[in-house]
Amino acid sequence: MNKKVTVKTIQKIKESGEKFSVLTAYDYSTAKYIDQAGVDIILIGDSLAMVALGYDTTHHVGVDEMEIFTRAVARGAERAMVVTDMPFMSYNVSIEDALKNTGRMIRAGASAVKIEGANEHILQVVKRCVQSGIPVMGHLGFTPQLLNTIGGYKIQGKSLDTTLEILEYAKKLEKAGVFSIVLEMVPEESAKFIAENLHVPVISCGAGKYCCGQVLVSDDVFGKYAEFKPKFARQYGDMKSLIFDCAKQFNDDVKSGKFPAEEEAFHLCEEELEQIKLYKKEV
Ligand code: KIV
């Protein structure tokens, strides 16, 4: 097994000028193959509310569900660092609540958590988590949990003023102790400027090529989620057709009697078969 990826590995990659990859996963086997493929961080994103549970936003998933999915992914990830997204309202009510909920994710097998935003409360949460041994990944730019406040899926950092505002928040997060920051839906040039002015690695989620890390939702990469495809997501496969074709063939085979075949059933030995035949005759 290659050495486990940690916050130190991620910082070293940034310092060496190399890149690292981040994909989401929500179950054991997907996490296992993503891990074997060499992806550095596996994120149990709250995107699972949409792509795995079928809701229309990320708001509908809670701490209990995130804990279950974290346990599954952590069992599949040997080398990759496992990071759990803290769901909507799981860290906003109080510091105590945030510590309790983030602690549950570490106990479930995550090595870090991701938290959106950088207001004064969030900065306190980050500080207290880091002091308690819970590494935190920040998330700025478009923050899906604020969807209703922002008023839609809007690109952030489109002007100098808004770019400087994001940078200011990013610096505060850095000071509070985050080990990396996701920048979502930010123009490439703004993201470059922000990343160049930070010490921690910046992870692009639709923020262009200059960031040190790149994150995508695995269902977009695999071509599994059909409801919505972000402009920045690259589809590498066609899992929805694969699943459809396999399910259709199975359905056809069952109904035409082609499934199961001889070798797909358990069989009695001659002696037991004879006994059944004799018993049948008696009946
Ligand atoms: O929920 C998620 O999957 C995310 C990533 C897209 C960054 O937050």
Q: Strand share of the residues?
A: 5-15%
**Nearest-integer average pLDDT:** 97
Q: What letter string, H or E per element, gives the SSE order?
A: HEHEHHEHEHEHHEHEEHHH
Instruction: Based on the coordinates given, report the CATH architecture of the largest domain.
Output: Alpha-Beta Barrel
Low-confidence stretches: none
Small-molecule binders here are: 3-methyl-2-oxobutanoic acid
The CATH class of the largest domain is Alpha Beta
User: What structural class do you assign from the helix and strand content?
Assistant: alpha/beta
- Distance between the ends: 60 Å
CATH topology of the largest domain: TIM Barrel
Radius of gyration equals: 23 Å
For the largest beta-sheet, the strand count, sense and barrel status come to: 8 strands, parallel, barrel
Q: How many separate helices?
A: 12
Shape estimate: elongated
Domain module count = 2
Count of distinct strands: 8
Q: What do we call the CATH homologous superfamily of the largest domain? A: Phosphoenolpyruvate-binding domains
Helix content: 40-55%
Adjacency order of strands in the biggest sheet = 1-2-3-4-5-6-7-8
Write the layout of secondary structure elements.
Elements: H1 7-16, E1 20-24, H2 28-36, E2 41-44, H3 48-51, H4 63-76, E3 81-85, H5 95-107, E4 112-116, H6 120-131, E5 136-141, H7 147-150, H8 160-176, E6 180-184, H9 188-196, E7 202-205, E8 213-216, H10 218-221, H11 239-256, H12 270-282
Parallel strand pairs: 1-2, 1-8, 2-3, 3-4, 4-5, 5-6, 6-7, 7-8
Helix pairs in contact: 2-4, 5-6, 8-9
The chain binds 3-methyl-2-oxobutanoic acid (KIV).
